[in-house]
Write a structure and sequence with these properties.
Helix content of chain B: 40-55%
CATH topology of chain A: Rossmann fold
Number of strands of chain A: 10
Radius of gyration of chain A: 17 Å
Largest sheet of chain A: 6 strands, mixed
Number of helices of chain A: 7
Strand content of chain B: 15-25%
Number of strands of chain B: 11
Number of domains of chain A: 1
Shape of chain B: elongated
Shape of chain A: globular
Structural class of chain A: alpha/beta
Largest sheet of chain B: 7 strands, mixed
Oligomer: heterodimer
CATH class of chain A: Alpha Beta
Order of helices and strands of chain A: EEEHEEHEHHHEHEHEE
Strand order of the largest sheet of chain A: 6-7-8-3-9-10
Number of domains of chain B: 2
Helix content of chain A: 25-40%
Largest interface: A-B, 29 and 23 residues
């Protein structure tokens, strides 16, 4: 926990889930340090702990052991309100099934994180429009998720993740629900945004992993060297 | 779009469901408000009636049988229970509110050819209530054959007879002779009681012409100014030799029973409607929350605080309830007079109904919010997103 240039620092991180009389070990003694820029892929078989690791990095879950620091904030000690603030400002999530709010338009979906962050209405509309234009959805601002293709929905989700300009983007199987053509488009987009921030992608897709600056292998809750 | 605005548009994700829920809430909230008002109105009526009846004292001729006056009637010119009695009553302290009731004048009619064949001829103003007499007065007489007396019958020799009288005494004839004058029978009434159904009503002018009752009165009603003074006035009235004093505990009891039953059934209906409204609202909000539990997780994952999630669901519940309240008010407008006629209580669309509708809607919304608020506060983003239902 002494690399000051790293955005993410994990020291002996463990996560256990109680299941019946025994605990299931999802993560076991993870030591990991990732810099403030670049694209990093976490790969491993199903149940290896990839998603658990991502959830801990995104303050969606707390570790049972070890220390987690992201962007200089220790997630072990942050209170619930601090974790909410962390998720709002420091991290952006991209989900496999997009998780857009169905009765809001693309523009409104992208504006949501900014609303939670207290950005004034006019400013968040301007920024959300700019983000959607940047990812090629200028003509889809007023469309609701059901009126968009899978690839378009995922691009809206990426724009939403970028809304508050967080230093860290976490993507959980972002191409898992997309065809290969749309998948490639998403790879390119993630690679592009990784130029100015850290993008951590959990994926089974070798092509996407191959584009990463570093691949982190995980098996049975442990990192493979 | 704020959490409140999102909450307000959320019910319309499924328009059909929103319409059904709002319609249900409108019905339940509207009826609930009216039933609560009916309960309150019935209780108010009971209290008012009790107050009135407890201070009401009836005087009738001394020695009269039942309320009919049998055995106590004196020949015209020798009557004691008359307008002179009224003057004596007027001199009693606290008996300030006097009601001289002379539109009903009774005349026994006995058919010596038949056993127990006696009846009363009752003179009344056409259009007045058909107050048949028996052990108690029967005020529920209704015409079953022919017609009632009308204003046009003021000076006519016409009669309405009781069901029993018609069966036992008319023998198919539509004409009777009273005081030596022929009367056409224009209708038959019933009180569903043999005593009550054994009399006849004729216009009071025809009664006076036939029987010449002079100063004779049937009854005097005395209203005491306060309940506390009733006993003192009763004691004073008992000093009047020609009058028997009758208070009306059984009338209070009957009124209490009838209106009490109505108040109780209205209260039961209100409780039932409240339960239905609460169940509808809680069910729909539980359903909405469970359907959107992943959405709660997503909102939290992208930075929503518990407060924002809870605010959204509160707005949704209160928005839906507000629509229900609006529908309830629209519904209560025509329903209030309809229920008033059906239940016989003064039920009107007034400020009370509006307040009751708003209160009911607010309580439903609060109840419906409990589960979403609990889930919104409790669920961590990852727990919520892992759940599919």
């Amino acid at each position: 926990m002494n690399d000051r240039s790293a955005l993410i620092q994990l020291h002996k991180v463990g996560k256990r889930y109680p299941k019946g009389a025994e605990d299931v070990i999802a993560l076991d003694g993870i030591d990991l340090s990732l810099p403030a820029q670049g694209m990093f892929a976490i790969v491993g078989p199903s149940g290896s702990g990839k998603s658990s690791l991502l959830h801990i990095l995104g303050a969606m879950d707390r570790p049972t052991d070890g220390e987690v620091a992201v962007a200089g904030q220790s997630l072990n000690t942050l209170p619930e309100s601090g974790l909410t603030r962390f998720r709002r400002k420091t991290v952006g999530f991209v989900f496999q099934s997009f998780n857009l709010i169905p009765n809001l338009t693309a523009l409104e979906n992208v504006m949501l994180p900014m609303e939670f962050d207290g950005v004034p209405g006019r400013e968040r509309r301007r920024r959300a429009s700019a983000l959607l234009e940047r990812i090629g959805l200028a003509a889809r601002l007023a469309h609701k998720p059901r009126e968009l293709s899978g690839g378009e929905q995922q691009r809206v989700a990426i724009a939403r993740a970028l809304a508050n300009s967080p230093p860290l983007i976490l993507a959980d199987e972002p191409t898992g629900n997309l065809d290969s053509m749309n998948g490639e488009m998403i790879y390119e987009l993630l690679k592009e945004i990784a130029v100015e921030r850290t993008v951590v992608v959990v994926t089974h897709a070798e092509a996407l992993a191959g584009m990463a600056d570093r691949i982190v292998h995980i098996r049975d809750g442990r990192l493979e060297v | 779009m704020s959490a409140i605005a999102r909450g307000l548009i959320n019910p319309f994700r499924s328009k059909a469901r929103a319409v059904v829920v709002v319609a249900l809430l409108s019905l339940v909230t509207g009826f609930l408000a009216l039933m609560v008002q009916a309960t309150l109105a019935s209780r108010e009526q009971i209290a008012g009636m009790e107050g009135r009846i407890r201070t009401l004292i009836e005087l009738r001729e001394a020695g009269a049988f039942g309320t009919g006056g049998f055995g106590g009637d004196q020949p015209v010119g020798e009557e004691h229970f008359s307008t002179d009695t009224l003057d004596a009553v007027a001199r009693i302290a606290h008996a300030r509110h006097l009601a001289r009731v002379d539109e009903y004048v009774y005349k026994p009619e006995v058919d010596s050819a038949k056993k127990n064949a006696y009846a009363m001829v009752i003179g009344l103003h056409p259009g007045a209530a058909l107050r048949a007499i028996g052990e108690v007065d029967y005020e529920n007489a209704r015409i079953v054959v022919g017609r009632n007396l009308t204003a046009a019958d003021d000076d006519a020799n016409v009669a309405i007879v009781g069901r029993l009288y018609a069966e036992q005494r008319l023998g198919g004839e539509q004409r009777i002779v009273l005081g030596g004058r022929p009367f056409d029978v224009v209708g038959t009434y019933t009180t569903a009681n043999d005593f009550g159904d054994n009399h006849m009503f004729i216009p009071i002018n025809a009664f006076r012409a036939a029987f010449k009752p002079g100063k004779k009165l049937s009854k005097i009603f005395v209203t005491v100014d306060k309940v506390a003074n009733v006993e003192r006035v009763v004691d004073d009235l008992k000093q009047i030799a020609e009058a028997d004093v009758v208070t009306a505990p059984e009338a209070v009891s009957t009124a209490r029973t009838t209106l009490g039953a109505l108040a109780l059934s209205s209260a039961y209906a209100a409780v039932l409607l409240f339960a239905i409204g609460a169940v509808v609202m809680v069910f729909i909000m539980v359903l909405s929350t469970r359907e959107r539990i992943r959405e709660i997780g997503t909102l939290k994952a992208i930075g929503a605080s518990n407060r924002e999630v809870v605010l959204q669901f509160l707005a949704e519940a209160f928005g839906m309830s507000a629509l229900g309240a609006a529908g309830a008010l629209l519904l209560a407008l025509p329903l209030a007079p309809l229920l008033s006629r059906m239940l016989g209580v003064p039920l009107a669309f007034d400020a009370n109904v509006v307040l009751l509708v708003l209160a009911g809607a607010a309580i439903f919304a609060a109840l419906g919010s409990l589960y979403p608020v609990f889930q919104g506060m409790r669920s961590s983003p990852i727990e919520a997103m892992r759940r599919t239902t």
